[in-house]
Batch of 2 targets.
Target 1
Amino acid sequence: MSCIFCKIAQKEIPSDIVYEDEEIVCFRDLEPQAPVHVLIIPKKHYESLDSVTESGEDKELLGHLMAKVHVIAARLGLENGYRLVNNCGEDGMQTVKHLHFHLLGGRQMGWPPG
Ligand code: 5GP
Ligand code: ZN
């Protein structure tokens, strides 16, 4: 398995993990773009949001991940708000081909994103 985020999920390479349960793991981004910048990933490998189906398993997993976002945000002190980002595919500028959501906070965000 050559996927770097699978390796992080399986602790084959180190990362700064801030939350973990059976289904998902959240760790600090190597190149933070905000005072708080973490990545939330399912442990199961999906290449991108395009790989998510309407199967019960996928819905349950993604629903679980979404329900944990505010728990993680609270743990990281983001009581004033935050941004959740998914970059999908080439136009979305996805660079790591394992589904992940960026959770950013600790500063005022801009809009529209670049
Ligand atoms: P993408 O551009 O695919 O949406 O985001 C990939 C993110 O993964 C980038 O923000 C990048 O800094 C981060 N990243 C890439 N490789 C590693 C790594 O080995 N460890 C950690 N913690 N973050 C990584
Ligand atoms: Zn993977």
Target 2
Amino acid sequence: MSKIKVMSENLANKIAAGEVVEKCASVVKELVENSIDAASDSIKINLQDGGLKEIKITDNGAGMESEDALLSFQRHATSKLIREDDLFFINTLGFRGEALPSIASVSEVDLTTCASTIGTHIHIKGGKLEINEPSDARKGTIISVSNLFYNTPARLKYLKSEQYELANTVSFIEKLALSYPNIKFELTNNDKTLVKTSGSGNLLKTIHEIYGLNVSSKMLEVKGETDDYTMEGYICKPEILKSNRNHMITIVNGRVVRNNDLNRAINDAYYTYKPDIKFPIVVLKFETDPTLIDVNIHPTKQDIKLSKTDELYKMIIDTIKDKLYKELLIPNALKEEATEISLPVAMIKNEIVTEKLEENENKISEKNYQTELDLSIKEEQEEYHPTKREDIIINPELKKIVLYPVGLALGTYIIAQNEEGVYLIDQHAAQERINYDKYLKALKEEVTTTIAPLFPINIELNTSDFLTIKENLDTLTKIGFNIEEFGLNTFIIKEHPTWLKRGFEEESIHKIFDSIISIGNKFDRVKFNEHIAITLACKMSIKANTRISIEAQEEILHELVNTDNPYNCPHGRPTIIKFSIYDLEKMFKRAMN
Ligand code: ZN
Ligand code: ZN
């Protein structure tokens, strides 16, 4: 009976195929998710020509009895899915009921499956059942889909090149492997292994198997929770950033999702630890009550909306920032040796699957970088009250670093040393970090010390800028300005905070106005503070090609190691690079191993 129904709905299936099946990766997705639902712990994906010719999935899951196998090709034949918005209420993955019949209507499907003693072999071509016979009793399912869209030339045209289709599938399987560390995945194309994980159940090991040692050795474990969410997983040290967001992997209730809020929070947490144009590698798993998730009804189901995100956002930022803050993040000049890292030895000996680490060209340009020569360092005039950041227990490791200056190279890099090795410190970047911390703390002060300039400062603006500033006079008052309107489009500043650099008051005020104007009506005090702090810090720091005394170097080093993040300037550039004694001995062949 079910057989007849499958045939009569062939047309509907072909139409639905257009929605469910867009590319080879979507076929792989549907089939692999079936395997996961069938409780497989080993899934092989063998592609021919990137899947354009054939996609074959072999699993060791529960398999199907003959009747169920036939039913699975029937539209909406599913015991798992009740309504689309039930997707997150149930523990199964897929958009069942449509996928398999749709795929079968536009390709050739060969299925061998067995749940108990007698297996079933089914062959369907363009939706027509051609073979249905008993087969051997290997537990699990083997399904192959070949010649996708052979009977729908219009759709066939939409399939991209082999490389494109393959890249999509690889990326999907990598993410899936990371969300299921307990499942063994193997993906091959034309018999070449592209992804291979061991199903060890260990997320870090899976990260290692996907990204290789260079990445896995630089991942940091994080854990956090709110009343509604738990988060755990790994984030990368800022030295191994990527040029795109593809490696920010977020998994909600077991499913890889795309969610801008999550991505933004993660990115914001790395604020000043990385340049804006670079993105971290993270694998973060979130668990929450399914009622807080709104699933987009598109069958690919990757886009979701989350509720109660304010707390979640804050938790993500605090957890990641805290982790970065507590870690030693000085990049080694040489790549780390396999033997030096703390991964299990067995894991290191494992073959390392294709490593895909793009070289990070770090061509960060800083505006204002070379604009003005300015040697003086602003004197500290106030004692800063401890801010929230300082309540965190300070990493004893971090404070242990004492750097002794040796001298200045190229008028730009401080050479320093301690018992662990030799360090190069970018003097501008280092001082920028120091000044950034000072400004940020000053801006957060409840009470600011102000000073009245000898002559009030007049600032004239165009009308629109004038109006923006006028709207934000409150903010300016709060940070210590006594400011009033003074005639047409002009403000008069009678008092200003003491932390404005002497001799540069007017220029600094212009910069502060610019920040307010650039943030515009989406004014946000936190962003404003950060923006001002970066701008002023860059301006007030010694630029490259400037000789400074050994005492000044000593002071910079001392202040740097006491900042919240001594490893990056506020633009995210590194401040400090280390040559360990071991590195040096290796380079000079003193150590031969
Ligand atoms: Zn700068
Ligand atoms: Zn910088």
